[in-house]
Amino acid sequence: MAIEVRDVNKSFGTTPVLRDVSIDVASGSLTALLGPSGGGKSTLLRVIAGLEHPDTGTVLISGVDATRLSPQRRNVGFVFQHYAAFKHMTVYRNVAFGLEIRKRPKAEIRKRVMELLELVHLEQMADRYPSQLSGGQRQRMALARALAVEPEVLLLDEPFGALDAQVRKELRTWLRRLHDEVHVTTVFVTHDQEEAIEVADTIVVLADGAVEQVGSPADVYDNPANPFVMRFLGPVTEIGGNLVRPHDIEITADPRPGSSEATVARVVRLGFEVRVELQIGDRDAWVQVTRGVAEQLALNPGDTVNVRPNPGSRSLALTGA
Amino acid sequence: MAKYGLRTIAVAYLLFLLVLPVGLIVWRTFGDGLAPFVEALTSPSALHAFRVTLEVSLWAVVANTVFGVGAALLLVRHEFPGKRLLSAFIDLPMAVSPVVVGLALILLYGRFSPVGGQLESWGIQIIFSTPGMVLATVFVALPLVVRAVVPVLEELGDEQEQAAHTLGASRFQTFLRITLPGIRSALAYGVVLCLARSLGEYGAVAVVSGRLVDQTQTLTLFVEERFQNFDQPAAFAAATALALLAVVTLLLTRLLRPKD
User: Fold this and answer.
1) ipTM value
2) Staple B98 to which of A72, B74, B203, B233, CB 3.0 to 4.6 Å?
3) Which fold has domain A236-317?
4) How far apart are the C-alpha atoms of B179 and B165, rounded to whole Å?
5) Closest chain A residue to B161 measured between Cα atoms?
6) Is the per-residue pLDDT at A256 higher than 90?
7) Residue ranges, CATH 3.40.50.300, chain A
């Protein structure tokens, strides 16, 4: 294990932010800490980096107890949401910083920095200052800077949170590819489930300072441990006291075993998919179908249809709902 | 019309308050050419006063720079009980009359106080000597560096410092390589302000120095003493020199003032 977090508790004043958190991060993995804001995921990342101290519990990095180690001795790379670029230094000096602190020979620093700048496609920008770069470029520079010291783990705190949607998507794909090239154990924090599913190979869902579920993206999406995780990982709707993914619902004209009757309230065409809003008894629900299915059924508001969860799909019983 | 009226009033106000008095001093100083000016300023007493002023000011600036940066870091980067009190104490010298500061220092460090007496028995004289004058100057110029640095430090944030830590930099390395360059211009601004205040200080220094001619006489004290002794050329020459110093520091602050 590259990182082992054991029974970590942390409060800010009287507010608990982390409650008995234990996670394992495998060497070479790309793990997402996913959860709503205020769920404690950034704090957990900062505890791993040594930027926050846990009230109780331990943090092991590569088998070594790092709980009492200062950030400078942990050999972690940390990337901040707002880049934390050293404004008075050129891109080159930013990336070289960790190596200069380690007093490596000049020639070695030069070689390593240029390699890294090539890796993040900033080799043309070496002499620029951070203020002359775009947000995406700054974040890539920050990444190169963190990688320069060959950290045992790379920690990214909402790395794409401050970027616009287009750049964010590009950088996501790029981060995935970079990880496949560099293989450094990476943990990143995000509140965007799509980002977590697309980039990570393991997802840790955190809410209210506690771990809700750990698993592969497919695992947490298809087999959510509880209604919270199911809701957070993707769209859900309620049918017959069960939480179901709207694309896992069968909609037919005639009743079938286990189906319930519903009234079509509205049909919304969103390109290739169609969103059918239904009334089941006095409850609202919605179903996502393809355009073909919708046209075949010729759905109109006021029609009566029958719906049931797809056989084989996963649904969660809502207790006390 | 109202526009011109206001302008006339503003100009007249500044004329009688600032331009005429300073202009007169310069005119009187150079009224008989440059020679008397140079002669007055190169007299042994004047030269000595220059030296004392520079010595006291430099020590005061060094002390206030070190304390100012330290206090600013403490106020911005740390949480501790009594923080607001410390912040209020730092502003105190702005409110207290320099003469009171001088008297207070004499009360504490004078020969007949327990502290002053003890120091005297170790051969350290504070009052009527350079250390006392430095103390008084440090006191009156205390808030200038702190107040110049605090807002910039706040705006800088601590993320760059945290990034430096994770990259392996110690606290001291982080301060030298990240924090100090970040506050550089604000610090320079504060230091120049502090220097200007120190060069021009009169009240507190007058009280603690004992105004010993050729011993503890600073340039401001020299002006006053020459004037009282009807040596107007020397008084005016020294006053002009002080004014020129002020203009230079003013220009420096203009040059160094943090953007925005």
Assistant:
1) 0.85
2) B203
3) OB fold (Dihydrolipoamide Acetyltransferase, E2P) (2.40.50)
4) 12
5) A84
6) no
7) 3-228
